[in-house]
Amino acid sequence: MRAQPVASHYIDGAYAEDAAGDPFDSIYPATGEVIARLHSATPAIIERAVESAARAQTQWAALRPVERGRVLRRAADLIMARNRELSELETLDTGKPLQETLVADATSGAEALEFFGGIAPTINGEIIPLGGDFAYTKRVPLGVCVGIGAWNYPTQIACWKAAPALACGNAMVFKPSETTPLCALKIAEILTEAGAPAGLFNVVQGLGPVGAALATHPRVAKVSLTGSVPTGRKVYAAAAEGMKHVTMELGGKSPLIVFDDADVEDAVGGAMLGNFYSTGQVCSNGTRVFVQAGIRDRFLARLAERTAAIRIGDPMDEDVQLGPVVSAAQHAKVMNYIQIGKAEGAECLVGGGLPRVQGFEGGFWVEPTVFTRVQDQMTIAREEIFGPVMAVLDFEDEDEVIARANGTDFGLSAGVFTGDLARAHRVADRLQAGTLWINAYNLAPVEVPFGGSKMSGVGRENSRAAIEHYTEIKSVYVGTGPVESAY
Ligand code: NDP
Fold it and tell me: Catalytic: 461?
């Protein structure tokens, strides 16, 4: 098979298999062909992974931070050197076009390892003078952390979770989505090659129950999930039972607001990036595009033109801009939302159908689709679709659009396009979201905190902010004089 790994899991510095686990197939979304067959983790595999991570963590946390950082930076270099191979695997795993994966996946993972490798030696506590006596604090690792990934960014998610966790002195057991099981195994291999102790980053495969077994394991101190809100609720509740730390990177239905004075080409480009990149399978997508009345016609004309020109096809062809969605199930879900959009009275401006891609008839293709005349209460304006489906809503003034943009339980991201600087900052201030873009969309460099408010999540990934979520503070009080005891 085209992408068969050495074995299903990676534990204690080597590939591991337990054929007693339920078998499952990895499918190339562009053709529907089975490219690998793996086994879900058995309880014995889960136990081995957690035990070896616990052993490695003790050894790893005892190293000087600068040595830990060096391993992560070496891993970043190895990833960059193997970018093409890793990008091709990412394309096989997800169906995303190589044009994207070459610049947005392994490269983003490498940057996370480089960034957190660099700041590992700076993770310090503080000294608190107390008039003679004093106290100091240390940031100590949590122990064994579990990462649970979604299928849209299998390499990036593994690295975004592993890099800060490892930099802080933790070990990680990572469970990829069973839809995209292949890429995280390569990251585990590379970390071993870079000098990480055996067991520091283990990968175990499986569906939800494997994730649930990890999230409730008594030796696990923290769970970091990227996925949907319903799964987030379950995992957060399960982790609370064991008083474990959590990071929850969940879904959204983010607003992108285009004011009359915006640059039309930039706003159209931003809206397209925020709806069609990765075939629309990005948590932070701006799927509710609010367009002010005065720019509406010009915006829609260019949007229709540019969307119709998107090149769909063989994801391995670097000229291709849009691949299939990730699975047959996701395809059915997205097509169902398109039907609902039409049935509820939205107007389909572009797309809405199934493209025929010659030679790839078994793939999970969806035309990039734009709905106009969308109303706030319509299903396609309220629920996360996770496919290349943009909803355009009309608005008249600033107060109105802010109230409507905030009228959702989600709060992951938001965007505003305008030529008026004061308005840009005023609107960004009033929008309820963890990440906002002004005259840009969907850029998430590692230097900037990323995460959601409201139902979209808890905690932040990337930047120094992530350090707080992979350490806890230990306070040490130092007495320097005689003990003044009342007894
Ligand atoms: P889920 O949220 O269901 O899954 C995310 C991860 O959690 C997967 O690895 C999954 O395993 C695992 N998981 C599922 N149930 C549990 C559990 N009880 N305990 C621990 N881990 C669990 O996302 P899906 O992949 O099923 O996608 C469903 C929808 O979620 C999409 O259509 C999309 O709308 C949304 N989504 C949002 C993402 C975002 O970043 N906002 C990312 C991906 C999806 P497994 O999948 O192997 O069963």
Answer: yes
Ligand 1 pocket check for 251: Cβ under 6 Å: yes
Whether pTM exceeds 0.90: yes
Average pLDDT of the chain to the nearest whole number? 98
Confidence class for position 85, pLDDT limits 50, 70, 90? very high
Q: Is 149 in the pocket of ligand 1 (CB under 6 A)?
A: yes
Nearest CA to 144 out of 72, 224, 233 is that of 224
What 3-state class would DSSP assign to 271? helix
Residue 347: active-site member: no
**Dihedral sign from CA coordinates of 98, 99, 102, 105:** negative
For residues 463-472, give the mean pLDDT: 98
Q: Return d(Cα 52, Cα 276) in angstroms, integer.
A: 41
Task: Report residue 171's pLDDT band, with 50, 70 and 90 as the boundaries.
Answer: very high
Q: Which of 230, 226, 338, 367 is nearest to 284 (CA)?
A: 226
Q: Which atom of ligand 1 is nearest to the CA of 148?
A: 9
Does the pLDDT at position 348 exceed 90?
Answer: yes
Per-residue DSSP letter, 459? S
- Tell me if 45 sits within 8 A of 213, measured CB to CB: no
Amino acid code (one letter) for 441:
Y
Query: What tokens were used for 468?
Result: 């707080």
- Report DSSP letters for 232-258, one per residue: HHHHHHHHHHTT-EEEEE-----EEEE
Over residues 364-400, the pLDDT tens digits come to 999 999 999 999 999 999 999 999 999 999 999 999 9
CA of 269 to the centre of ligand 1 (A): 29
Q: Which residues contact 440 (CB under 8 A, 6 or more apart)?
A: 270, 415
Query: Ligand 1 centroid to 369 CA: how many Å?
Result: 24
Output the residue whose Cα is nearest ligand 1's atom 33. Answer: 386
Contact 30, 22 (CB under 8 A): no
Whether 161 is catalytic is yes
CA of 390 relative to ligand 1 center, distance in Å: 22
What are the angstrom distances between the C-alpha of 279 and each of 54, 201, 312, 330, 332? 38, 30, 10, 11, 14
Return d(Cα 457, Cα 313) in angstroms, integer. Answer: 34
